[in-house]
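Note to self: user wants both folds in one dump. Writing first protein now.
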Amino acid sequence: MAAHLVDDIGVLAGLFGIAGFAPQIVRILRERDAHAISLKMYAATTLGFGLWVTYGLAQHNWPIVGANTLMLAMAATILALKLRFK
């Protein structure tokens, strides 16, 4: 498979992953309620994205770094909102 096609797939995967977090953030902010959010799950997810960013940096794989940096930021935002709106 051509390298640019592999990168394009990585970027698309990242965009869909990012899109999955946006509605959750909007809902928490709108309702000021994060009761239904699992603290352990978002702590693990945030850690996982941090590790993916580290991996991507080590591999010089910019689609992995870019997508996972954005997902890390969004997961960390949800985690922070969970702690704020307990």
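First done. Writing the second protein, which came from a different request thread.
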Amino acid sequence: MLGLIIVLLVVGLIAGALARLLVPGRDPIGIGGTILIGVVGSFVGGFLGYVLFHHDKGEGALQPSGILGSIIGAVIVLLIYRSMSGRGHRFGRTW
């Protein structure tokens, strides 16, 4: 169980960091936020992979396609986070 949590955090950190590199702009989140975006992105990517390709855990939990799906999911989560936090939109005063 502890090994699964460590792998989840490491993959989350990698996926979140790569998502932040791929999506232009600054995000005022720390390493914890980056890991959270990566972990949630892993679940989103895994869900999308299952819906599109109908693969399951029987083919192996850690695969290159799974890591790629985690990165794509993290990019999606980061874009949703930005749109919900209001970043990138300037209402009211313009400086």
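Dump finished. Worth passing along: The chain has one domain: 2-56+64-83.
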